[in-house]
From TrEMBL:
<protein>
    <submittedName>
        <fullName>Polysaccharide biosynthesis protein</fullName>
    </submittedName>
</protein>
<comment type="similarity">
    <text>Belongs to the polysaccharide synthase family.</text>
</comment>
<dbReference type="InterPro" id="IPR003869">
    <property type="entry name" value="Polysac_CapD-like"/>
</dbReference>
<dbReference type="InterPro" id="IPR036291">
    <property type="entry name" value="NAD(P)-bd_dom_sf"/>
</dbReference>
<dbReference type="InterPro" id="IPR051203">
    <property type="entry name" value="Polysaccharide_Synthase-Rel"/>
</dbReference>
<feature type="domain" description="Polysaccharide biosynthesis protein CapD-like">
    <location>
        <begin position="40"/>
        <end position="318"/>
    </location>
</feature>
<dbReference type="Pfam" id="PF02719">
    <property type="entry name" value="Polysacc_synt_2"/>
</dbReference>
Length: 345
């Protein structure tokens, strides 16, 4: 029988200490011109990354921040943190699903944003291995809808938020996000618009991520589950990741994939041990084995991708082969067959 422990709050933990990293210094040169006085739309605005993007962007005094999400409660939470109220009756919050092509097109045509940060995605790797069709509908078709709508509205700048799992992908999550990067690159090549992707690894403390999960298990006195004793991941805090995403948007060339410097990979077992000690718990650590699609070690740069850092010391410029949206019609149905790895290569 598990016993709930009166342990310290997660907010009191030193996240950098848990993963052995140092905070990344902010460098906001060039960001002001991207944001100040402009209309900014964020998809997935209610999520961990989307909401922090909204909060950071608000500091640069944009003409308008349009926060779009399909989760009304999440929209209320981000509205409170950005606008100081949760009334949900103002134009800064938009309830819509990126899977709905007509709705997204109508919103962008009517609101005419200058910059779109596309953060809406499904991201839980094991869940998407079970339900690949859902990953396809959101991460691939949803991204296509956002790109088509942005082109129709002649949005000058779009930033597609990606993941390190798109580098040499082995999972449904990685494959679908890789395809989203390639769709973004194709759209930029066809239009000449500043449409780019930004790729980074695990984000500390984000909703549903490892740190909050470990904390819940430790507080309940339950075993902490780790897939493999040697498994490593790249980590960055939410504010750092969003800060670099905004900086990347200011320096990217059309079609590029910007890869954030996540420092050295960290062994998950070490994080689990540090968290148990920091929270004063007594949880055992149980190894469950790598799940389908999981890598022992993640990568930030894929095979054949460049590693140039011409502008910012923490941001690598890379490229991916463009993929025309019409090619999606020839892809196998994810509900009955795995996504074609040739497409995601």
């Amino acid at each position: 029988m598990s016993v709930q422990l009166p342990l310290p709050d997660l907010d009191s933990l030193d996240l950098h200490g848990l993963v052995g990293t140092r905070p990344t210094a902010a460098d906001l040169d060039g960001v002001d011109g991207l944001v100040r006085g402009r209309r900014i739309l964020v998809t997935g605005a209610g999520g961990s990354i989307g909401s922090e993007l909204c909060r950071q962007l608000a500091r640069f005094e944009p003409a308008e921040i349009i926060m779009l999400d399909r989760d009304e409660t999440a929209l209320q939470h981000v509205q409170v943190s950005v606008s100081g109220h949760g009334l949900l009756d103002t134009r800064d919050v938009v309830l819509a699903d990126i899977r709905d092509a007509d709705a997204i097109r109508g919103i962008l045509l009517s609101r005419r944003p200058d910059v779109v940060f596309h953060a809406a995605a499904l991201k839980h790797l094991p869940m998407l291995e079970q339900y690949p069709d859902e990953a396809w509908k959101t991460n691939v078709l949803g991204t296509r809808n956002v790109l088509h709508a942005a082109v129709a509205a002649r949005v000058p700048t779009l930033v597609n938020i990606s993941t390190d799992k798109a580098a040499n992908p082995t999972s449904v999550l990685g494959q679908t996000k890789r395809i989203a990067e390639r769709l973004t690159a194709w759209t930029a090549a066809e239009t000449g618009l500043d449409y780019v992707s930004v790729r980074f690894g695990n984000v500390l403390g984000s909703r549903g991520s490892m740190i909050p999960l470990f904390a819940d298990l430790i507080r309940a006195g339950r075993p902490v589950t780790v897939t493999h004793p040697d498994a490593t991941r790249y980590f960055m805090t939410i504010p750092e990741a969003c800060n670099l995403v905004i900086q990347a948007a200011a320096i990217a060339e059309p079609g590029e994939v910007l890869v954030l410097d996540m420092g050295e990979p960290v062994r998950i077992l070490d994080v689990a041990r540090r968290m148990i000690a920091a929270l004063g718990g007594s949880s055992d650590i149980v190894f469950t084995g790598l799940r389908p699609g999981e890598k022992l070690h993640e990568e930030l740069i894929g095979a054949g991708e460049t590693e140039r850092r011409p502008v910012h010391p923490k941001i690598t410029h890379a490229s991916v082969p463009p993929l025309a949206p019409a090619a999606l019609d020839a892809a196998p149905a994810p509900v009955t067959a795995p996504i074609d790895l040739a497409m995601a290569a």
